Amino acid sequence: MQSYAEGPVTEGDRPLGMYVHVPFCSVRCGYCDFNTYTADELGEGATRATYASSAIAEVRDDLVRVLRALDEHLGLAPDAEVTTEANPDSVTPASLARLREGGFTRISFGMQSAVPHVLATLDRTHDPARVPQAVRWAREAGFEQVSVDLIYGTPGESVDDWRTTLDATVALEPDHVSAYALIVEDGTAFARKVRRGEVVMPDDDETADKYLLADAVLSEAGLGWYELSNWARDADARCRHNLLYWHGADWWGVGPGAHSHLAGRRWWNVKHPAAYAQRLERGESVEAGSEVVDAAGRRLEQVMLELRLREGLALDALDAAGRAEVPDLRDRGLLLGDERLVLTLEGRLLADAVVRQLTP
Ligand SMILES: C[S@@+](CC[C@H](N)C(=O)[O-])C[C@H]1O[C@@H](n2cnc3c(N)ncnc32)[C@H](O)[C@@H]1O
Ligand code: SF4
Questions:
Q1: Whether the Cβ atoms of residue 7 and residue 70 lie closer than 8 Å to each other
Q2: 114 burial level (CB within 10 Å; 0-12, 13-18, 19+)
């Protein structure tokens, strides 16, 4: 189910992104370490089956109420991008229509793969046929932007399986695609399976081949890369909220475990939904911790994030030692550009190493 909704509001003349973290999922995917809880984990209430569907229905209506409150208290920009993430299994034509009428403009579906055995390894419950249906419903409801999230490099996924997923993605005619290599997150059920040898992660060469295939198939279909793991139909279809993160702008996260950043200060909320609710009931702050990022930390982040963008990184964001490394990276065919440094396709495969070299 969806885990957040976002939309820039204005604070003075600085854009401010908002996201609302919804910490409920009907089933926990083994690989995911987001701060979400299933009915079983939260305890109490009706049976798991009825709780899950009623909670989803309630959250969907609540999202519209939250959006209305954000608008009332902070003032949404007139052309704000307002996204919700959604598990394809948890939407219906009626729920999508309610969200659209309530002001949501963009939806991002957790498709992950079009291949049943890959979905099964990821603990995803949806039938691959559900995705084109959900996308069609979203279009019928009037969503202006429809995006899908993909994961590649799942154990057992062949290059042909990945091609099947990419072909199915292109057939959806999405406005936007995110494709991330599967990350083994510590503490997840999936990490335990990897440790026990029950599943084997693919080697880096195969993962690189899958990235190249994704870029070739998506580009051919008119979806151009604008961030290392994100492709869009055109500049208007880029995710404005994520661009705000990648440019180190300000955002405010609402909900249990949500992170925020305002003018160099970061803070994060208490993680558990019950603790979060209790603090609010008592009129206490929900903040669990905070930090102020110093200039060196901000520079490192800027290099890491902006180098992933198609617009590239301004050369003067580098210190003298970093600038001295640029000719070598150009000679090795990993970087292009003068005033702005842009990764080549080869450089995109080695982005982490390029960042390390530029931040000695
Ligand atoms: C927080 S999820 C929300 C989407 C929605 N809840 C769903 O899963 O259908 C956002 C996206 O992050 C990606 N993701 C989550 N965990 C990941 C992991 N361990 N490795 C790679 N991608 C991951 C998935 O593609 C997922 O769709
Ligand atoms: S990836 Fe799975 S567990 Fe994680 S937020 Fe999405 S539906 Fe929930």
A1: yes
A2: buried
Tens of pLDDT along 234-269? 999 999 999 999 998 999 998 899 999 988 899 999
Name, in order, each residue with C-beta under 8 angstroms of 126's C-beta and a sequence gap of 6 or more.
87, 88, 89, 119
Q: What's the CA gap between 331 and 162, in Å, rounded?
A: 32
Return the ∠ at Cα 205 (arms to 204 and 207), rounded to 5°: 65
CB of residue 36 inside a 6 A radius of ligand 2: yes
The rounded distance, in Å, linking the Cα atoms of 18 and 9 is 7
Instruction: Report pTM.
Output: 0.93
The tally of CA atoms less than 13 A away on the side-chain side of residue 317 is 23
Integer Cα distance of 360 and 348 in angstroms:
19
In angstroms, the CA 190 to CA 42 distance is: 21
Q: What is the pLDDT of residues 143-164, one digit of tens each?
A: 999 999 999 999 999 999 999 9
Structure-block tokens of residue 94: 């009626």
Which bound ligand lies closest to the C-alpha atom of 25?
2
Cβ distance 309 to 246 under 8 Å?
Answer: yes
Q: Which is it for the CA torsion 60, 69, 249, 21, positive or negative? A: negative
Q: Which atom belonging to ligand 1 lies closest to the Cα atom of 178?
A: 25
Structure-derived torsion over alpha carbons of residues 304, 241, 127, 156, reported in degrees to the nearest 10 = 0
Closest ligand 1 atom number to CA of residue 112: 25
